[in-house]
Amino acid sequence: MKFPFAELVHLDNLWFQVTGTLCNLSCTHCFNRSGPQARSFGFLTLAQVQEELETAVRAGVKEIFFTGGEPFLHPQLPEMLELSLAVAPTTVLTNGMLISNRLADRMAEMERKARYSLEIRVSLDGWTEASNDALRGRGVFKQVLAAIERLCQRGLLPLVTVVRTWDEGEDQAALEGFGSVLKAAGYARPRIKLLPALPLGRELERSPQAGAESSLLSEEMLEGFDRDLLMCSNSRLVTDRGVWVCPLLVEIPAARLGARLQDAAPTYELKHPACMSCYHYGTICGNVSALIEGPAELKRP
Amino acid sequence: MTRLALLGGIYSNYRALETALRQIEQRGADGIYCLGDLGAFGPYPDRVYPLLRSRGVECIQGNYDNSLAGGLADCQCGYTDPRDNYFARLSYAYTFENTSVENKAWLASLPMTRRLEVEGWRILLCHGSPRKLNEFLWESTSSDAFLEYLLRLADADIVAVTHTGIKWHRRLSAGRQFINVGVLGRPENNGLTHVVYAELSLERDAAKVEFVPVEYDFRALAADMAEEKLPPEFIETILTGWWTTCLEILPHKERAHGRF
Ligand code: SF4
Ligand SMILES: [Fe+2]
Questions:
Q1: By the CB < 8 Å criterion, does A191 face chain B?
Q2: How far is CA A248 from CA A254, A255, B177, B219, in A?
Q3: Cβ atoms of A18 and A44 closer than 8 Å
């Protein structure tokens, strides 16, 4: 079978896989199988981050993202965020478990000083303790809500990131559920980003039909399609093992494009089922707090 | 010296447009340009067209104009949140119904961008960004590096855009500049009821940007909107200066500065 290719049109978004896939949690639906035992990647050093930031700035990068694993397991993450914020808007994707008062203070401070936005994306996958903790682990719900409260008290408005583990028809009810639990935790105007579950990693083991059902992309499907919606046409991911086409495919060795940004291959063959998710849902990894596709007929909110 | 008045989205706010055009006449301008989104949000969409045409305002298409002209199903505003989309659909349906066939045809005749050469400055006027009609260029999410890239892409010394609804101005390398001219359509989420446009003053070796506040009869506009049964949420924004909708597209800094 012949698959379509995606070409890097411009490096809008640079991602850092800053702690590899090492994480202090091991959520049952994690798309890159992060966890306490995940050692296929190492940590990025501050020097590596700085060097690739410089390359990206020369290329005209728009935004920087830090992900993992859990990025805050890296002892130098705050320094990295400061370096990054000095040159571009910066986002960190976290499970929220390590956000202490001290760390929240530091982030509020760096946000105040920066010209650019600092986005803190905190994961929460259920609006009840039982439903969240079944996916993310025991005790996580309470601890994460406490972290969100700490951020809000300091004027930060975290983007609460939720993976849809229910039917699309229940989105409205789910958003209401998350909204009210966040308000009760002191988040007066909650920002929520809803993501589809991806046919990757442990999610594929949790619901194998996701992989079976999703077919693969073909050249015909991409005819007339806005390829800007695929991250591979505007993003790259830096790991300690080299540069990957996008954060979704970090577990796929064939998605490695080179050692460093400046010599990474400019095109990639879209031959993975996850590519279908990008095709369906558009820029799923971006920051716009979003429902993936608004239902056609909406009740008055 | 050459002085240009650059108007952002009008969103059917014919009252603010009238006031702005009077101000421009008093201050004097060598050209008046509008960067698109003539309709949306406000009342009586057809009222802005005679004003623009009689004063010779040179317009380009915004996403809204492009949709109205092409009879598209939605406004291409680029929202993704269901609440934002609910309101976007509502105002698009109203604006579509109340824009005459002649005015839609006129929108279709407008160019997507305009290039000017003034006092040696190469200027590009566009709606969202030089590369996309509905790209949001916010102050807090547009890195210097990225804006330099867009200037290179546009092959220009000065690029002016609108679309987001909040003004800003950045000086870059070699005297080049990027301007988001703001909008005349609604206040910019700062608790103040006035709206703005940008005045660009050009000399051979200097380009100066000034944002001119437009104090118009916003209470009369609110009354018009109530008469047309437009959503109370929209009217609240006109009366208070705080956005109540389209909030989910705001980056952290811009969102934190607002009330909602
Ligand atoms: S998963 Fe998405 S972003 Fe990654 S290569 Fe496939 S289409 Fe591109
Ligand atoms: Fe627009």
A1: yes
A2: 13, 10, 36, 50
A3: yes
Residue ranges per domain, chain B? Answer: 2-257
What digits encode the pLDDT tens for the residues A75-102?
Answer: 999 999 999 999 999 999 999 999 999 9
Question: B223: which 2 tokens?
Answer: 């009354």
Residue nearest to atom 2 of ligand 1 (CA): A275
Q: Which fold has domain B2-257?
A: Purple Acid Phosphatase; chain A, domain 2 (3.60.21)
Q: Mind giving me the DSSP string for B53-70?
A: HHTT-EE---HHHHHHHH
CA distance linking residue A162 with residue B105, whole number of Å? 44
Q: Residue A36: is its pLDDT beyond 80?
A: yes
Give the HSE-up count for residue B3: Cα atoms under 13 Å, Cβ half-sphere. Answer: 11
> Which of the residues B83, B159, B173, B252 would you substitute to probe the A interface, choosing the one with the greatest number of A C-beta atoms within 10 Å?
B252
For residue A86, give the nearest of B235, B42, B144 by alpha carbon.
Answer: B144
Confidence of residue A211 (pLDDT cuts 50, 70, 90): low
Alpha helices for chain A (secondary structure H): 46-58, 77-85, 101-113, 129-136, 140-153, 171-184, 201-206, 209-213, 273-281
Instruction: Please give the residue range of the domain that contains residue A104.
Output: 5-281
| CATH code for the domain of A114 | 3.20.20.70
Of A11, A226, A245, which is best to mutate to test ligand 1, by the most ligand atoms within 8 angstroms of its C-beta? A245
Domain assignment present for A226: yes
Strand A235-239 to strand A191-196: parallel, antiparallel, or no bridges (unpaired)? unpaired
Are β-strands B158-161 and B177-180 bridged in parallel, bridged antiparallel, or unpaired? Answer: parallel
Chain B positions in Cβ-Cβ contact with residue A87 (cut-off 8 Å): 143-145
The contacts of residue A111 (CB under 8 Å, 6+ apart) are A117, A118, A155, A156, B252, B253
Name the least confident of A193-202, B40-49, B132-141, B183-192.
Answer: A193-202
Residue A18 lies in a domain: yes
pLDDT band at A294 (very low <50, low <70, confident <90, very high): very low
Query: How many other CB atoms are there within 10 angstroms of residue B53's CB atom?
Result: 12
B11 vs A71, A164, A221, B38, B62, CA distance in Å? 43, 35, 36, 5, 11
Indicate if ligand 1 lies below 6 Å from the C-beta of A231: yes
**A300 CB near a chain B CB, below 8 Å?**
yes
Tell me the one-letter amino acid at B55: R
- H-helix segments, A59-208: 77-85, 101-113, 129-136, 140-153, 171-184, 201-206
Distance CA A44, CA B194 (A): 48
Strand bridging mode A267-269 / A5-7: antiparallel
CA gap A239, A78 in Å, rounded: 18
The DSSP result for A52-86, as a single string, is: HHHHHHHTT--EEEEESS-GGGSTTHHHHHHHHHT
The first and second tokens of residue B20, run together, are: 């702005």
User: Sign (positive/negative) of CA torsion A233, A235, A238, A239?
Assistant: negative
